[in-house]
Amino acid sequence: MRLNGAQILWECLVREGVEVVFGITGGAVLPIYDEMPKYPVHHVTMRHEQAAAHAADGYARATGKVGVCMATSGPGATNLVTGIATAQMDSSPIVAITGQVATSALGTDGFQEVDTTGITLPITKHNYLITNVKDLARSVREAFYIARTGKPGAVLIDIVKDAQQAECEFEYPEQVYLPGYRPHVRGNPRQIKQAAELINAAQRPVIIAGRGVLIAHAEAELRALAEKANIPVVTTLLGKSALPETHPLCLGMGGMHGEAYANWAMQEADLIFGIGTRFDDRLTSTASTFAPKAKVIHADIEPAEISKRIRVDVPIVGDARNVLQALLPLVREAEHTEWLECIAKWREDTLAHDILWQETDELVPQYVIRSIWEATCGEAIMVSDVGQNQMWEAQYYLHNRPGGLISSGGLGTMGFALPAAIGAAMGRPDCRVWVVAGDGGFQMTLQELATVVQEKLPLKIAILNNGFLGMVRQWQELFYNKNYSGSPLLGPDFVKLAEAYGIPGLRVTRKEDVVGAVQQAEAMEGPVLIDFQIEQEHNVYPIVPVGQPIHQMLRRPIKVRAQSAACERQGGEA
Amino acid sequence: MISEAQSGVFSRRTLVVLMEDKPGVLSHVTNLFRRRNYNIESLTVGHSETPGISRMTVVVHANDAVLEQVIKQLYKLINVTKVTDITDDAAVIRELALIKVHATGADRAEIKQLVDIFRAQIIDVAHESLTVEVTGTEDKIDSMIEMLRPFGIKELTRTGRVAMVRGAARTNGDR
C-alpha cells in the first residue's frame, strides 16, 4: 500500500489504539491535519500547546494508555516543552508529535524553525527526527513501545513537512527491534530472597509505595503483602491510593508535608522497603538524615533509580507487581503489634494538631477538600494543581480508587490541573473528575475553559482562592520574615469568568456554605466552577524546612480541641 | 546517603560504550554527561567491528558511586547497547597527537633525534617547521609535547583515549 507520510502516521496511530489526540494545528503539520478527518481518531483542539501536552499526560494517567499530543514547528513545539517535561518526570507515557520545516529549510533558521529534538533531548525518554518517510512507521511503532514499557515516559517524534507529503510503501512493523532497550521486569530471585529475609527479621518495618505500584497495577499485591505481615505503608504523593487510604495500615503521604506519624514511622523504622519510588528529595529531605536506623530494600523497574539518592542494602530491579508476587510467599505472617501501637499513638498526637479537630468558623481549605471527599465518597478522580492546594488535597482527600489522584509531582508544574483534567475526563467519561487549583495556577492555563465547553466535559472545578501564590507566601512567612515579595496576586472575578465561557459559577465565602455548594456542583450535569474564597494567610502543616530531617517538622499550633472525636478521618474502610 | 567512604575516591575511569550508529546518538551521550554534571576528560568515537555499531571510549573523573550512576544512565539511553568499565582490566590504551613544531637549522636534527627516541614519525616537512605524529599513552604524548615545547609548538591536536582489553576477550556484549 503506497501512502504519504501523513497517512502513514495516522495508520500507525490507529494501529496503536489511539482514540484521542490533543493538539493545535499549524503550518508545519498541515499535511497531517489534512488527512486527519479520514481516520477514526477524535481530535481535541486545545487553546495552547502546553495544555495539549498536559491533556495527553492526564489522559495517560487516567487510562494507563499512551496519551498523544500534536503541535506545529517552532512555537508550537516549544510550547509543548513544559508538558513533556512534566510527563517525563512523573513516568507518564505520552507521545508528542511535532511538525518541522521542510528538509530544504532545516538548519537555516527558517520561519517557525526550532531545533525541537535538541530542545527536548534532556526531557524525553527518547526522540526522533524524521527526514525520510521510510523511517516513519518504524519510529512511531518504537515510540509507543518505548513510552509505555519499562519506566514509562515521554517520546517525541519531529517530522519534517516534506516527509509528511512524500510517499512510500507502507508496511506496519509487527516487531520492534531495539537491541539497547530491554527493561528488566522480573526481579532477581536471589535478591528477592534476601529482601524477604530482611522483611521477616524486621521489628519496625515500613513500606514506601510510589507511583510504580500504580503503574504496574500492583495494588492487590501490595495490600496482600502489607496485610500478611502487618506492615504499615507510607506513600509518596504520586503513590497515594496504592493502598486504599482508609485502610488501617495506610499512613498516608510522607515527606515535606507528610503526616507527622508517617514521617516518624520512617525515621524510627528498622527496615524501609521502597517500591516503585525514586526516593525523591520531597520525600526524604536530606538523604543522609533519612531513616537513619533502617536497612533499605529498593525495588524499581529502572536500575538508574537504585542507589541514586539513598544507600540500598538490597536492590531489586523489576516491575512492582512481579516483585511483590515473588515476595509474597517468602514473607512470613507477622503481627508487629508493638510497632503498630506505637504508630497509633503518634497518630493520636497528629490528630490533635489537625485543623479539622479545632474550633474554627473560618473558611479553611482543608474543610473544602474534606467536603469534596465526603460528597464523592473518596472515589473521584482528583486532579490537583501545584502548591498549597496540592498539599491540602493530598492531606485531606483519602483516595480509595487506585490512580484517583492526578498531579504534577516531580516537575511541580503550576497550571497542570485544568488541562490534565480535560485529558482525564476524555479518557474516563465514566468517572467524576474534580479539579483542585489555586488562583495562581488556575490563571496559568484558564484559557482551557473553552476546551471544557467545546468537549462538553462535566468537570467540577474548585478554586482555592487566597489571592496569593500561597506556597511561596507561606515560605516567605516562615523563612523570609514575611517579606511577601512577588507573591500577592490579583485575580479576575472567577464566577463572571466562568460565565463568560458558559460555565455556571458559584462563589463561597463562608464555611457554612461549603457543603451546599459542593453538593450542588455534584448534582449538576455539566461543568461548574466554584470560587472558594479561603483564608488568605493559611498554611500547610506540617512542613519540614529544607535541609531538616523529616521528623523535625513545623506543626500547626494546637488551639481549642473539639469535644467528640471528629476522628472519622481514620474512617472505616470503604 | 552515599558517603565518600562507601563510594571511594575520585580517579580517572575508562568506559567503552557501544551504541547503535543512529543520528543524534552522540548528542544523547554528550548531553547526558553535561546534564548530570559528570566530568568527562576525553571522549572518542568511531566505527566498531560490527556494521551499524559505534564504539566510544570515555574517560570520566569519578568515584565508585558516580561511576555506577554514569553506567546506569548510559544504559538508560535507548541506543546504547553495552557499557564496560575497563579501568581495572589489562588494556591497551592509545592516543594520537599531531604536533607542528618550529624547526630551523640545527634544531631539525635535534627534533629528528627526539622523534626517533619516542618512536614517533615526521609526517610533513616545511622550511620552518616539522609535523610530528606520535602514538601512545597520554603520559608518553605529554612527555613528547614537553620535549618539543622549547622549539616552539605552532599547532597541536590530540585524539583522546581509545582502549581495548588485552587477550581474546571481546567488549561487544558477546560472551
Q: Could you outline the blueprint of secondary structure elements for this entry?
A:
The complex is a heterodimer of chains A (574) and B (175).
Chain A: E1 2-4, H1 5-15, E2 20-23, H2 30-35, E3 42-45, H3 49-63, E4 67-71, H4 75-89, E5 94-100, H5 116-120, E6 126-130, H6 136-148, E7 154-160, H7 161-165, E8 167-169, H8 189-201, E9 205-209, H9 211-215, H10 219-229, E10 233-235, E11 250-253, H11 260-268, E12 271-275, H12 281-284, E13 295-300, E14 314-317, H13 320-327, H14 337-352, H15 365-375, E15 381-384, H16 388-396, E16 405-406, H17 417-427, E17 433-438, H18 439-445, H19 449-454, E18 460-465, H20 470-479, H21 494-500, E19 505-508, H22 514-523, E20 528-533
Parallel strand pairs in A: 2-3, 2-4, 4-5, 5-7, 6-7, 9-10, 9-12, 10-11, 12-13, 13-14, 15-16, 15-17, 17-18, 18-20, 19-20
Antiparallel strand pairs in A: 1-8
Chain B: H1 4-7, E1 11-20, H2 25-35, E2 39-47, E3 53-62, H3 64-76, E4 80-85, E5 91-102, H4 107-117, E6 121-125, E7 129-136, H5 138-148, E8 153-158, E9 162-165
Antiparallel strand pairs in B: 1-3, 1-4, 2-3, 5-7, 5-8, 5-9, 6-7
Give a structural overview.
The complex is a heterodimer of chains A (574) and B (175). Chain A has 574 residues and is of the alpha/beta class. Helices cover 36% and strands 16% of the residues of chain A. Chain A folds into three domains: 2-169, 3-Layer(aba) Sandwich (Rossmann fold); 189-345, TPP-binding domain (Rossmann fold); 355-548, 3-Layer(aba) Sandwich (Rossmann fold). In chain A, helix 10 (219-229) runs parallel beside helix 13 (320-327). The longest helix of chain A is centred in the middle third of the chain and has 16 residues, at 337-352. Chain A is globular. With 175 residues, chain B is α+β, with helices and mostly antiparallel strands. Helices cover 29% and strands 40% of the residues of chain B. Chain B has helices at residues 4-7, 25-35, 64-76, 107-117, 138-148; strands at residues 11-20, 39-47, 53-62, 80-85, 91-102, 121-125, 129-136, 153-158, 162-165. Chains A and B meet through strand 6 of A and helix 2 and helix 3 of B.
